[in-house]
Amino acid sequence: MSEPWEAEVFAVPDVAWQAHVPPARHPVPARYVPELLVGDEVTIGVPGHYFLDGQVVAQAGRQTRPQPDGSDEQDSLAVAAPYAFWLARAFPDVRMIVQWWPVARTWVYRDAVQPGGHPGHEASTGDLGGGSWLDHVRPTLHEPPVRRPRAARDAGSLTGRTLRLQHEPGGWSWWVAVSEPLDRGGDFVVQVMHPTHYWLAQAAFERPERARAVPLHRLFVYE
Q1: Has residue 200 got a pLDDT over 60?
Q2: Among 10, 106, 125, 172, which residue has the least CB neighbours within 10 Å?
Q3: Where in the chain is the domain with CATH 2.30.30?
Q4: What pLDDT sits at residue 6?
Q5: Which residue, among 53, 21, 54, 58, has the nearest Cα to 37 in the 3D structure?
């Protein structure tokens, strides 16, 4: 019979969560998301023509505004490109270019939720995206597409792409790759930056320590 201390000495930490696949992301019309805050990301567009991901809510609240195309006034959100938003936040003297975009043409991506209200994650790497290119063909442009996760190691070039990392059990965060995968003594890693620092680095010098190495197997992209 083993002694109690042996169970502690030979216990293997449970790190399986580090490779959990994040849930799919679904576009939710902004009119159903009243709690949007300054700094939240949204997707804007003109259904049937184009969509722009990664835009940032620049001002709190919503206002009724005339539309650029001359149509009637609509409930609108102040949005800005991420570079303009983060630059103005870091340097208040810099004027932020903001546009008022109709709420009816704005979406917010949210994680898929399992029955019972709990955010889910894909069951295995077999559920990841990356099948046939036909999987991405859509019959209409009525709304932005569902985004599905794919292991970063299978996603080709990574520099400049947004990545998702589970930094603690159940806790997900977003990063931007600032390198391709690197071999560091047999460990495959990617240098990443927090989105705020990534955008600011394009306007002002950022300290090298802003970039950190993250194991490649823990990173995912969305497609």
Answers
A1: yes
A2: 10
A3: 25-111
A4: 55
A5: 58
- Give the CATH fold of the 25-111 domain: SH3 type barrels. (2.30.30)
pTM to 2 decimals? 0.83
Residue 126's pLDDT band, with cuts at 50, 70 and 90, is: very low
Average pLDDT value for the chain:
87
